[in-house]
């Protein structure tokens, strides 16, 4: 994934002024920034949920601005997105939530059942298969959201605040799960967070956004010892 | 939590001093903007409805939820409508010695106007608000975004199926409500009289004609389409937050109900021109 000089405004407010990022295969890139710095706007632009005002987003060698709706949907099937609230379909059971992304696949019923059970086993939720999302705890909903994201075995995974609203123990479990996923699927990930412990567990590379621009880049250790006090303040 | 919702909705710049009448100009401008957006939404529906995949299972599920689940309420309303209309009309007709006209008169009133319009209004309240609230809730919890990001067409799965289901189910419900209303009328006639069902039914059949039934049935397709379209539009395009869910449900009912009256007015004009 290659992002070049991305800009996005809402009315007179410039949320993203000049964002440039590059993610290599199998890399976990954590994006840090203050609340309201445009991190969620950035991640939504990456999958075409929002249209950018300027700049280029290249996914799998294609500029997404030049794709038709069908071509964009085909690219999206290679991307997984874990929403901040997990965005589970609350009128469907856990099983139906996981079967939903597989609707247009040609697998048999038994193969789909096996994929669903494997996805739940990966996140430790085998016993919840016939429950409704409303019957699950916050951590379980996040894990189910992750299972649904992974069921199509995406090549790039985007995480929007994966540990927000969770207790410290569950946050660490989710962070380790994200790391295991990266190793198992060799997927590239972009993680939007302001949970420093999560960033420390997961990140290969860290980018800090300030005032809509890419302010600092480096590994977790490099940035935590940065000469810039504002950057260092994230890691205290 | 990321406040991009606030970033999107924040107003910037100096506060402008408003001129007299400018509020009304703004309201008219907003009204025409909304009409334009609703028209685009309808055109999007017509573009997608004939494209594969057809989402048949979801369509059937919506027909069950919208049609079958609405039947008890529609049936009760229909029965009461027929009964009350008969009881209220009887004294006036009795003054002229015209009680025998009661079955025919009630049947025409119900089949031509009261059945379609009142059933559609009940339908707008129940189904319109339900669709508006459901879709707005899905928007607020990012479920629609999740569908879009997974590479499927959420408009086709959520909107097209519901509008189609509403368009097809309302005429069926109206036909059933009309039948139950006429039975309610028969019960009303027999509160003070003694009329056999055979005689009552014969009088109804002799009075009703094709020009009573056909235009009334056709307009219910438009009523159903309006309820489905406006409910989906209100919910699919709602603002973030629980306030948006409430507003979407309210707007769906109010605008659907208003559109039913407008469409009925147009239908009556067309019918009187053609007959």
A few lines on this structure:
By secondary structure, chain A is an alpha/beta fold. Helices cover 36% and strands 25% of the residues of chain A. Chain A has helices spanning 39-46, 69-76, 94-99, 109-122, 138-150, 168-185, 196-202, 220-224, 229-234; strands at residues 2-10, 13-22, 28-33, 54-59, 62-63, 79-82, 156-160, 188-192, 205-210, 213-218.
Characterization of this structure:
Chain A has 236 residues and is of the alpha/beta class. Helices cover 36% and strands 25% of the residues of chain A. Chain A contains 9 helices and 10 strands. Chain A has helices at residues 39-46, 69-76, 94-99, 109-122, 138-150, 168-185, 196-202, 220-224, 229-234; strands at residues 2-10, 13-22, 28-33, 54-59, 62-63, 79-82, 156-160, 188-192, 205-210, 213-218. In chain A, the strands form 2 sheets. Chain A has a 6-stranded mixed sheet with strand order 6-7-8-3-9-10. A 4-stranded antiparallel sheet of chain A has the order 2-1-4-5, with helices on one face. In chain A, α5 packs parallel to α6 (168-185). The two termini of chain A are 30 Å apart. The mean pLDDT of chain A is 88. Chain B is mostly helical. In chain B, 82% of the residues lie in helices and 0% in strands. Chain B has 10 helices and no strands. Chain B is elongated, with a radius of gyration of 23 Å. Chain A binds chain B through residues 10-13, 15, 35-36, 38-41, 44, 47, 49, 73-77, 79, 81, 83-85, 87-90, 100-101, 103-104, 152, 160-161, 164, 192, and chain B through 1-4, 6-8, 10-13, 53, 141-143, 145-146, 148-153.
């Amino acid at each position: 994934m290659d992002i070049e000089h991305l800009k996005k405004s809402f009315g007179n407010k410039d949320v993203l002024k000049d964002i440039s990022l590059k993610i290599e295969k199998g890399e976990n890139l954590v994006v840090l920034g203050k609340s309201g710095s445009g991190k969620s706007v950035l991640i939504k632009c990456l999958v075409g949920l929002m249209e950018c005002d300027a700049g280029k987003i290249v996914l799998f060698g294609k500029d997404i601005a030049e794709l038709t709706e069908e071509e964009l949907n085909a690219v999206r099937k290679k991307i997984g997105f874990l929403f901040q609230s997990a965005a589970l379909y609350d009128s469907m059971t856990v099983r139906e939530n996981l079967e939903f992304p597989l609707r247009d696949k040609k697998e048999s019923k038994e193969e789909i059942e096996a994929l669903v059970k494997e996805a739940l086993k990966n996140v430790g939720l085998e016993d919840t298969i016939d429950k409704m999302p409303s019957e699950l705890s916050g951590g379980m909903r996040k894990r189910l959201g992750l299972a649904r994201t992974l069921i199509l075995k995406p090549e790039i995974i985007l995480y929007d605040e994966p540990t927000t609203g969770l207790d410290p123990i569950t946050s660490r479990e989710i962070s380790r799960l994200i790391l295991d996923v990266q190793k198992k699927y060799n997927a590239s990930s972009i993680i939007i967070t302001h949970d420093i412990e999560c960033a420390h567990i997961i990140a290969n590379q860290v980018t800090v956004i300030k005032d809509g621009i890419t302010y600092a880049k480096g590994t977790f250790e490099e940035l935590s010892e940065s000469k810039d006090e504002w950057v260092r303040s994230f890691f205290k | 939590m990321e406040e991009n919702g606030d970033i999107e909705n924040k107003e910037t710049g100096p506060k402008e001093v408003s001129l007299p009448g400018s509020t009304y100009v703004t309201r008219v401008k907003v009204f025409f903007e909304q009409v334009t957006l609703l028209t685009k939404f309808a055109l999007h529906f017509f573009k997608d409805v004939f494209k594969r995949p057809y989402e048949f299972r979801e369509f059937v599920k919506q027909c069950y939820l919208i049609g079958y689940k609405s039947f008890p309420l529609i049936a009760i309303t229909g029965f009461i409508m027929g009964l009350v209309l008969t009881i209220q009309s009887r004294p006036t007709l009795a003054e002229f010695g015209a009680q025998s006209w009661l079955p025919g008169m009630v049947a025409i009133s119900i089949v031509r106007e009261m059945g379609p319009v009142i059933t559609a209004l009940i339908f707008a309240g129940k189904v319109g608000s339900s669709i508006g609230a459901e879709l707005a809730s899905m928007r607020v919890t990012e479920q629609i975004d999740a569908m879009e990001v997974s590479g499927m067409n959420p408009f086709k799965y959520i909107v097209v199926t519901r509008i189609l289901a509403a368009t097809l189910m309302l005429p069926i419900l109206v036909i059933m409500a009309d039948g139950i209303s006429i039975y309610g009328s028969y019960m009303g006639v027999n509160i003070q009289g003694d009329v056999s069902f055979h005689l009552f039914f014969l009088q109804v059949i002799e009075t009703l004609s094709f020009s009573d039934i056909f235009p009334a049935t056709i307009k219910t397709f438009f009523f159903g389409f309006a309820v489905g379209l406006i409910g989906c539009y209100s919910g699919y395009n709602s603002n973030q937050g629980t306030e948006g869910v409430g507003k979407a449900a309210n707007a769906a009912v109010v605008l659907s109900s208003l559109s039913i009256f407008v469409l009925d007015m147009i239908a009556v004009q067309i019918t009187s021109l053609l007959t």
